[in-house]
Write a structure and sequence with these properties.
Strand order of the largest sheet: 2-9-8-5
CATH superfamily of the largest domain: Cadherins
InterPro entries: Cadherin-domain_protein, Cadherin-like_dom, Cadherin-like_sf
Protein name: Cadherin domain-containing protein
Main location: membrane
Oligomer: single chain
Helix content: 10-25%
Pfam families: Cadherin (PF00028)
Number of helices: 5
Subcellular location: Membrane
Largest sheet: 4 strands, mixed
Length: 485
Amino acid sequence: MSRRYKNWIFNLIYLLWLPLACKGNMTPVFSGTYPVILNKNEEGGTPGGTLLHTLTATDADSTDVITYTCTFIPSNSSTLFTYSNQTGQIYTATGTVLDYEQWQQYDIYCTATDGVAIGGPVLISVVVQNVAEAPYFIPSTTVQYFTLPESPSGTLIGHPSFTIGDEDMNEFHTWSKTGSGSGASYVYINPTNGTITLSQDYDRDTLSGTMDVQIKVTDKFGLSATATYSITFTDINDISPVFVSNYSFIAGVNTTVNTSFVTVSATDGDATSPNNEITYSIETTSTGREYFDFNGSNIYLQYSIDAEYGSLWTFRIFAIDGGTPANTATATVSVSTYSSTTTTTTTEPPPGYSWFSDNSLNVLMFVLAGVVLGVLTGYMCCMCWRYNTYGKCLHDQRTCCVVDRPEPTYPIVLVPPLATTLTTGRPFKDPYNCTPEPYSRMGDSTTRYSNVTPSNVTVTAVSPDIQANRNMLYSRHDDFPDTRY
C-alpha cells in the first residue's frame, strides 16, 4: 500500500471520529435577555463596591465548570469595575465613583466557557445618570475682604478673588446678594462675574466703617454656594475744621508773662483720627505772634506787650487738622491793650477804658445831665436878653417901672399941649411916682394913673437941657411909648 493511500485512509477515519468525539460537550448558554442596560447615578449615587449585574450561563454537560471573562469599553474604564470569573458578579471598583462629566456610558462584553466551548458574548451597558451637583469656590472661600476710601455711588469695590467649580456639565452660574448683611442696600453685584460696586454714596463720617454683604452663586439646577464680602471704608480728610466763634480779650502792658487769656474751640466732622485731630497756631506774620502763642487750645502771653501798637489790634489764628492734605479754619482775635499796671485778673476796668462800651446806665445819666444843663443854659440866656431889652429879667406887677438913676435936678416943664391935656384930664405917666391901676396883660402900654394932678407939676420955661434930659430919661422905658412932655 502506498504512502499516499495510507494518508487518505487516516483522514477519512478522523473525519468520521470527530463528530462522535464532540457529541458529549455542549456550549454554555447565557440566561436572561441581553443586552442589559443599567442606569446608574453618578457620584454618591453609585458608590464603590456596588453590585451592578450577575452573569448566569448554563451548560448541558453537568460536569463542565463555567468561567466568565469580561472586556470593558472604553478600555481604560477597567479600573472602574471588577468582576468574579467564577460567580459572574460585576461590581464598581472600591474607592471609585461614576462621573457623568467624565464618561456617560460604559460597555461590558462577557463570555462564558466550559474550557472547550465559549458562549456569548453578551453586553451589559452601564449608563451614568447626571446628578445635579452644587457649585463651589476655588480655592475654598467663605469670606473675601475689600478695603477702599469712602466713595460716591458707582465706585468699583472689587472683583471676587475665587472662581466657581461645578461638576455638572454645561453649567452656567448667576451671582446675587442674598439681602442679608449690613451693606446689602449699598452695593450692586454683577450677576455674570460677581463684581461689586457701590449703588449709593457712602460717607464714612456718618456711616459705619465696615459692612458685610452675603453673596450667592446659583447653578442651573438651583443649587448654590455662598460667601461673604466684608468691606472696610477708610475715612478721607474731606471736612475742614470750624471755629466756634471769633475771640477777644484785654491785656495790659504789665500783664504777667504766661498769663492765659482765652481757650479757643474748633470742631472737625471727620470720623477718625488723625483727620479729626486739631492743632492751633497763630499767623506767623502778624503782630500777635510776637507776643502770644498757644498752649494746647489756650492763648497765653509769651512776651510782655509793647504799647507802641496802640490800644486795639487784631491777629488771625488757625485750626489745622491732622489729615493729608491738612484742612484749615481761620478766626480773628481782637486784643485791647492799656498802659496801666492793671492786669486782666482785676475786676475794675483799666484807666482810659470807656464806660460807654459796656454800661448803659452811665450812658443814660450822661444824657440826662446834658439835657438839664442845656435847659438851664437856655433859661439864663433868655433872662439876659430880657434884661438887656427891658432893663429887668422878670415883669413886676406892683411897680410900673424901675428907675436906677437919681431924680433929675431940673424942674419938670410942661409944654403947652401937655398942660392943656392935663387940665382936660389926659393921663400922665410919671416915671418917679406912679401907682398902676388894674391891667389886662403884662407890659400893657395903656395903663392908667389916677394920682397925677396939676398941683403935682410946676410949670416953668422950657430949657434945652431939660429937653435932652427928658429924652434920655424915657428912652429906657419902652413900656411907655406914648409918654412925652
